Amino acid sequence: MKEIKEYSAEEVAQHNTSDDVLVIMDNKVYDCTDFLSEHPGGDYIILEFAGQDATEAFEDTRHGDEARKIRAKLFVGRLKQESKS
């Protein structure tokens, strides 16, 4: 079984250009770089959330099963849970 990579929010935030796009959704990290040109709503929507949490935007758009299948293929890791002290 492949080990799942963990990313800090700071690491994800560094991936915020059209050549390197990570987004967070539901505490999971997705690499959307290669999907930019295929996104039906245009790349600018994904780029608006590059390096950030896009959960609310994704859910507010009411994406269907097909979008969720595509998103699953873009999964690259999980968001590290920061300890609060």
Keywords:
85 residues; alpha+beta; globular
Could you characterize the architecture of this molecule?
The chain is of the alpha+beta class and 85 residues long. It contains four helices and five strands; from the N terminus they run E-H-E-E-E-H-H-H-E. It has helices spanning 9-13, 43-48, 55-60, 65-73; strands at 5-7, 16-17, 20-25, 28-31, 75-79. It has a five-stranded mixed beta sheet with strand order 1-5-4-3-2. The longest helix is centred in the C-terminal third of the chain and has 9 residues, at 65-73. It is globular. The N and C termini lie far apart (33 Å). The model has no long low-confidence stretch (mean pLDDT 92).
Q: Layout of SSEs?
A:
Blueprint: E1 5-7, H1 9-13, E2 16-17, E3 20-25, E4 28-31, H2 43-48, H3 55-60, H4 65-73, E5 75-79
Parallel strand pairs: 1-5
Antiparallel strand pairs: 2-3, 3-4, 4-5
Strand order of the largest sheet: 1-5-4-3-2
Uncertain parts: none
**Gyration radius, to the nearest Å?**
13 Å
Mean pLDDT: 92
Q: TL;DR?
A:
With 85 residues, this protein is an alpha+beta fold. It has helices at residues 9-13, 43-48, 55-60, 65-73; strands at 5-7, 16-17, 20-25, 28-31, 75-79.
